[in-house]
Design brief:
The complex is a heterodimer of chains A (about 400) and B (about 350). By secondary structure, chain A is of the alpha+beta class. Chain A is built from ten helices and seven strands. Classes of the chains: A alpha+beta (about 400), B mainly alpha (about 350).
């Protein structure tokens, strides 16, 4: 026995749960990149970098202090690179996951299509394909957890499944495949990331479904990849870009220990895109710390004005049109990520509760209870006993009748 | 409500899972002694912790800045106090030689030699080094500031060092100010305006007139030094005194008494300023230490775990877990079958 209305509701909620838990997994990975509660991360290396210039300002003539500046800058760039790489890794991982899920979806739809045929075969002859139907229901639920689907059963006993508004996945005994394809970048999707492609038929041009998948694990994964990961990549890029430019602008204004006009401190960063992954110290400065600029004027080894000004960059409200400082911006980023992860985790928990409740309802309706079964069994056994007794009585009666003449 | 067996199993499993994951969270907190182990544990708290960490990093740096500025300033002050002592000695000698009683050309030329020595020592003090940099050369800290003629090769720059988030303190006093009486604006203006100021510097030359004559008076009041007093070139004062002594000119010697007074008070004003900088650095240091402790307390309050709370929670969860396990065991075991014998 089952309740079709309940089954459909459960499938919908499971799809939502898949969506949320897909997001939660990806967000928790993202959060880990910015987690510096136990270890030192970007927040600390940004502080160290600017402090090294403050230290230099107390003794701009000193070689060891210049080396310290170089080392802290090296630490900072490597930390930015690390974050950039880890974000790229998350992206890569999301793509790999998407590929796996697309394959899974394809094999499930294939199986549903063949079950469609079997159900039809059995039921066209007036029978009822219980086993096949049960298996098909289970697969539908699995599919719903992977991707948001709509389905309906036709008069011919087959189910038709569609996803992303109107892309038909299964009709009759035919399953249409999805494909994960690496495509050029656009708006929120990075270069090389997978798009989910759909083909109406062998000859039709592929249709991009990526932004229209809004449920299931795949939807959750894609929404984090093109939403949160993309957003935080942009933010960290912009932060590293701004730090590099602000420090470079000041650095170029002064003079180094050879009385030459200052050059860029960080190697020139052309565009904001991917800046965090590529930021590095200008190689000539890396090779010769005498080229680090502390003072404004030439022939003034004790001049520390530029070093002071670079130190001030840390706290000056220079980002987002003067709304926030470097520190505040980074901390705001961590807070935002934390809040989002917290929210999603809360939603996953709630959704798990909803699904559990529905599952209980379904079990209550369709599930097996041993007490009940045993009771039923005993009931049937008793009936059997009673029937047997009737037969025996009838037998005895017949016996009596047959033997009646002897007396 | 009809209860299927699977509902029982599910419920038991859920309860046990929930208890176990709670246990794990608490155990992690106990192991790290931290309530916040990742930003999502308490996003706003986590960010406050980051802010405090940055603050404390800054405090540590400002402390180092204060200490190195203090060292530099104290060394400058010490050097100037020697300079001041020497000028007082020069003044004593000059007073002795200011009248004609018992002073002839011979004794004056002996004293002149001593004054020459004081002059040389004064130049040495002007060239005093702290580590490998000159104390009194302004930004030209690697160039010897004074040659033996008392010509200044440094600049008028003041080195500012950050000692608080929005506060700087000047570390040095340029030799042009303390030894040559140049007046600087406070705080240091940009380079361009400094060029215009050069005209303000007026250095007094020797005068052989009677100190009471009106011309001498006007000269004495004409130029104003850095601390709003008469601008004096210490080297010239000493050199003029030496010249006067050698020339056996008592008026010059008498004149230089005033000048020496000015020179002494100019050096002492510089010492006073350095001393007050040290005082403010000391109080800055105390403030920093206090702020640092405050920040640590706040950080700990936000992120550290409350042990009583934690142990309490742990034992509560433990009890729950045991209860779940015990009831599950009993519930799953019993069916109608057990009673059909």
């Amino acid at each position: 026995v089952n309740n079709p209305y309940l089954e459909k509701q459960l499938a919908g909620e499971k799809s939502q749960l898949g969506f949320l838990s897909g997001q939660s997994t990806a967000l928790m990975r993202l959060e880990q990149v910015y987690n510096e509660q136990q270890v030192d991360g970007l927040n600390s290396s940004i502080g160290k970098f600017f402090n090294s210039f403050r230290e230099l300002s107390t003794n701009p003539e000193s070689m060891p202090k210049r080396i310290a500046v170089k080392e802290s800058a090296d630490l900072l760039t490597r930390d930015f690179n690390r974050v950039g790489e880890q974000l790229a890794d998350i992206r890569k991982e999301a793509n790999g996951q998407a590929q796996i899920q697309v394959n899974e979806i394809n094999s499930v739809t294939q199986e549903i299509a063949s079950l469609n045929m079997q159900v039809q075969k059995v039921e066209i002859g007036g029978g009822f394909a219980n086993d096949e139907r049960d298996r098909r229901d289970a697969l539908l639920k699995n599919l719903g957890e992977l991707i948001d689907i709509k389905w309906a059963e036709g008069k011919d006993s087959t189910v038709t499944i569609s996803t992303a508004d109107d892309a038909i996945l299964v009709v009759g005994n035919e399953a249409r495949k999805l494909e994960a394809v690496s495509t050029p970048g656009r708006e929120n999707k990075a270069e090389g990331d997978f798009d989910i492609m759909y083909y109406h038929n062998e000859y039709a041009a592929p249709m991009v479904l990526t932004d229209r998948i809004r449920g299931g694990k795949l939807g959750g994964l894609l929404s984090v990849r093109d939403g949160d990961v993309a957003e935080f990549e942009r933010k960290i890029d912009m932060l590293s870009f701004e730090i590099a430019n602000r420090v470079n602008d000041l650095h170029r204004q002064g003079h180094n220990s050879y009385n030459q006009r200052g050059e860029d401190f960080f190697a020139h960063v052309g565009s904001q895109d991917g800046a965090a992954g590529t930021i590095k110290i200008n190689p000539t400065i890396l090779g010769d710390v005498g080229r680090i600029v502390a003072g404004a004027d030439p022939n003034s080894p004790g001049d520390n004005r530029i070093a002071n000004m670079i130190g001030d960059v840390q706290h000056s409200k220079s980002l987002l049109d003067g709304a926030t400082s470097i520190d505040e911006y980074y901390n705001g980023m961590v807070a935002e990520l934390g809040i989002r992860t917290q929210n999603i985790n809360g939603m996953v928990e709630t959704q798990e509760g909803v699904v559990r409740q529905l599952e209980n309802l379904r079990e209550s309706y369709s599930g097996v209870n041993i007490d009940e079964e045993v009771a039923n069994m005993i009931e049937w056994q008793k009936q059997f006993d009673a029937s047997a007794r009737i037969i025996r009585t009838a037998d005895e009666m017949l016996d009596t009748v047959i033997n009646i003449r002897r007396y | 409500m009809r209860v299927a067996d699977k509902m029982n199993y599910n419920q038991s499993l859920n309860a046990i899972n929930k208890n176990r994951s709670e246990m794990m969270t608490y155990q992690h907190q106990a192991a790290t002694q931290k309530r916040i182990n990742k930003p999502s544990d308490d996003p706003l708290g986590a960010v406050r912790v980051l802010e405090k960490k940055t603050e404390m990093q800054g405090f540590e740096q400002y402390k180092r800045n204060i200490l190195s500025a203090k060292e530099f300033i104290e060394y400058s002050e010490q050097s100037l106090s020697q300079a001041s002592e020497m000028l007082i000695r020069a003044k004593e000698l000059a007073i002795d030689q200011a009248d004609d009683a018992a002073n002839g050309a011979e004794s004056r030329s002996i004293v002149a030699a001593e004054i020459k020595q004081i002059y040389e020592q004064m130049v040495n003090i002007g060239n005093r080094k702290f580590g490998d940099r000159f104390l009194f050369g302004g930004y030209k800290s690697m160039t010897t500031p004074f040659d033996m003629t008392g010509t200044y090769f440094g600049d008028d720059a003041e080195m500012d060092v950050q000692i608080e988030k929005d506060a700087y303190i000047t570390m040095n006093i340029p030799g042009s100010v303390v030894f040559m009486g140049k007046k600087l604006h406070q705080p240091l203006p940009p380079k361009e305006t400094l060029q215009d100021d050069k005209t303000q510097v007026e250095v007094r030359g020797p005068s052989s007139t009677d100190p009471l004559s009106p011309t001498s008076q006007t000269i004495a009041n004409s130029a104003e030094g850095h601390w709003g007093m008469v601008s004096t070139n210490v080297f010239e004062v000493l050199r003029d005194l030496e010249v006067g002594l050698r020339a056996n000119d008592k008026y010059v010697v008498q004149n230089s008494l005033d000048y020496l007074d000015n020179a002494i008070s100019q050096i002492n004003m510089a010492r006073g300023e350095l001393g007050s900088r040290v005082t403010s650095l000391n109080s800055g240091l105390e403030t920093l230490q206090k702020l640092n402790v405050d920040a640590k307390v706040v950080q700990s309050e936000i992120e550290d775990v409350d042990m009583y709370d934690l142990v309490n929670n742990l034992s509560k969860t433990q009890t729950q877990l045991e209860a779940s396990l015990a009831t599950s065991g009993k519930m799953m075991k019993t069916t109608l079958l057990d009673f059909l014998r």
